[in-house]
Write a structure and sequence with these properties.
Blueprint lengths: L1 E8 L6 H11 L5 H13 L15 H6 L6 E6 L3 E7 L7 H8 L4 E7 L6 H12 L4 E7 L8 H17 L6 E6 L23 H6 L13 E8 L11 E7 L3 E2 L3 E5 L3 E10 L2 E3 L1 E2 L4 E6 L10 E4 L6 E11 L5 E2 L3 E6 L2 E14 L5 E3 L4 E2 L4 E13 L11 E6 L5 E8 L1
Parallel strand pairs: 1-3, 1-4, 4-5, 5-6
Antiparallel strand pairs: 2-3, 7-8, 7-15, 8-14, 9-13, 10-11, 10-15, 11-12, 11-14, 16-22, 16-24, 17-21, 18-19, 18-23, 19-20, 19-22, 23-24
């Protein structure tokens, strides 16, 4: 069954958690004991309806404040496919959480409070989606019940959304603007009786129409080696396998590979998954590859088809989101991790910082603050794959790690 990874984005109190809770409820994904607990908690608050946000807000602080803080991944399914929803926070100070939740998604639901309209945070969410290459967008104009399901207000918000897409230069492959009420389930899984004027798809139907393919893979096979499997050799059997994950295209027995960064060549002789042998594997598969000869391969190596060898470089340009409360410092030693490969790194310059209008502004700063996003140049001790994030997500992204604290301090997207 196909799996669609979809992120949510919205300003504070736009109803993201309630919307996801409603989706769980409408798809019968909540157990009876969970429903009973939600009803009990809702009644204790004086509600005469189930507070479905309780189905997703798991932290104590989230339940107490009624907001989302951490990124929660929620799983549910329909007859057609399975869904993994990243419920991300809306506060500006949790920009890093929003980027993290969206970075692995194939689509995004952007929530807008119908009583408040498009806000600055909406532009921020679109900027994040554009930066991360998300081209499938659903705009859920929520809380239509607060404006008495007024069509004119909805049409005004539609115009604001379209203008924002034009201003940011966003061209989506799939785009929907849907009026909903997550609280009462209007236009979520079934057509709304309160909004007979709306003839478009329900939220769930729009989600069912989205593509599950990764537009940034382009059928480029990238097999990242996690470990070398070498059991104790015997006189009769000498096994040497390379365990890892395939991202992008497919691989099969007989494919000619180039090993990066050493540029050695070899051919796939067998593919193992546990104790089974396979002729081919698809993107997203974790398995063990056997090659026709012994070559220098270790954790961090990347196996690619010989007719599709990406550029290697010791210097990269990147969009960097700073995740740490301690400032980024130019020329300080960090570690850069791309997949399973880790190299020493220094940020040589901060060329531009994104301002409040989400446009890069030329800068001569040598520091970045928490949640700031900038265009930077990074020098590396060893070469890595220099592949634009829009061309391949798995190799086009990386994290920066503080060499002293070992904290993950930056999330980067390679730009060419």
């Amino acid at each position: 069954m196909e799996v669609l990874k979809i992120a949510t984005a919205g300003s504070v109190d736009d109803g993201k958690s309630t919307l996801i809770g409603r989706l769980l409820y409408e798809t019968n994904s909540l157990t009876q004991d969970k429903l009973d607990a939600i009803w009990k908690s809702s009644k204790s608050k004086g509600y005469d309806y189930p507070d479905l946000s309780l189905a997703t807000d798991g932290l104590v602080a989230e339940r107490e404040q009624g907001i989302t803080i951490d990124v929660a991944h929620i799983y549910f399914s329909t007859e057609n496919r399975r869904y993994i929803v990243a419920d991300s926070p809306g506060h500006v100070e949790y920009t890093r959480n929003m980027i993290t939740g969206t970075s692995t998604s194939q689509a995004s639901i952007v929530l807008i409070d119908a009583s408040k309209g498009v806000k600055e945070q909406t532009a921020r969410h679109l900027f994040i989606n554009k930066t991360l290459g998300i081209q499938q967008l659903i705009f859920a104009v929520n809380k239509m019940d607060l404006i008495s399901y007024n069509e004119d207000v909805f049409l005004k918000i539609c115009a604001e959304i379209k203008n924002l897409l034009l201003t940011q230069g966003i061209k989506s492959t799939h785009s929907f603007i849907i009026p909903v009420s997550a609280l009462y389930g209007e236009a979520i899984a079934h057509p709304s009786e309160q909004m007979a004027w709306y003839s478009g798809p329900t939220l769930l139907k729009a989600m069912e129409s989205l593509s599950t393919s990764d537009p940034a893979a382009n059928n480029k096979a990238r097999f990242t080696v996690q470990s070398v499997i070498r059991p104790e050799a015997s006189k009769t059997y000498d096994f040497r396998g390379y365990a890892g994950r395939l991202n992008g295209g497919n691989l099969q027995k007989g494919d000619h590979l180039t090993i990066l960064p050493g540029l050695q060549s070899a051919t796939i002789s067998d593919i193992h998954f546990f104790n089974q042998s396979y002729d081919k594997i698809q993107s997203g598969t974790s398995c063990t590859l056997l090659l026709d000869k012994d070559v220098d391969i270790s954790r961090g190596s990347v196996l690619v088809r010989t007719d599709d060898v990406p550029e290697l470089s010791r210097q990269i340009n990147a969009t960097l989101c700073w995740l740490d409360s301690n400032q980024l410092q130019v020329n300080r030693k960090y570690y850069l991790q791309q997949g399973t490969k880790t190299v020493q790194a220094k940020v040589k310059s901060v060329d531009a910082v994104y301002g409040i209008d989400f446009r890069p502004e030329a800068s001569n700063t040598d520091q970045l603050e928490l949640n700031e996003v900038a265009e930077v140049q990074i020098a590396l001790s060893d070469p890595i794959i220099n592949e634009d994030f829009t061309q391949h997500r798995s190799t086009g992204r990386f994290v920066l790690i503080d060499a002293i604290t070992n904290n993950t301090v930056g999330l980067g997207l390679i730009r060419n």
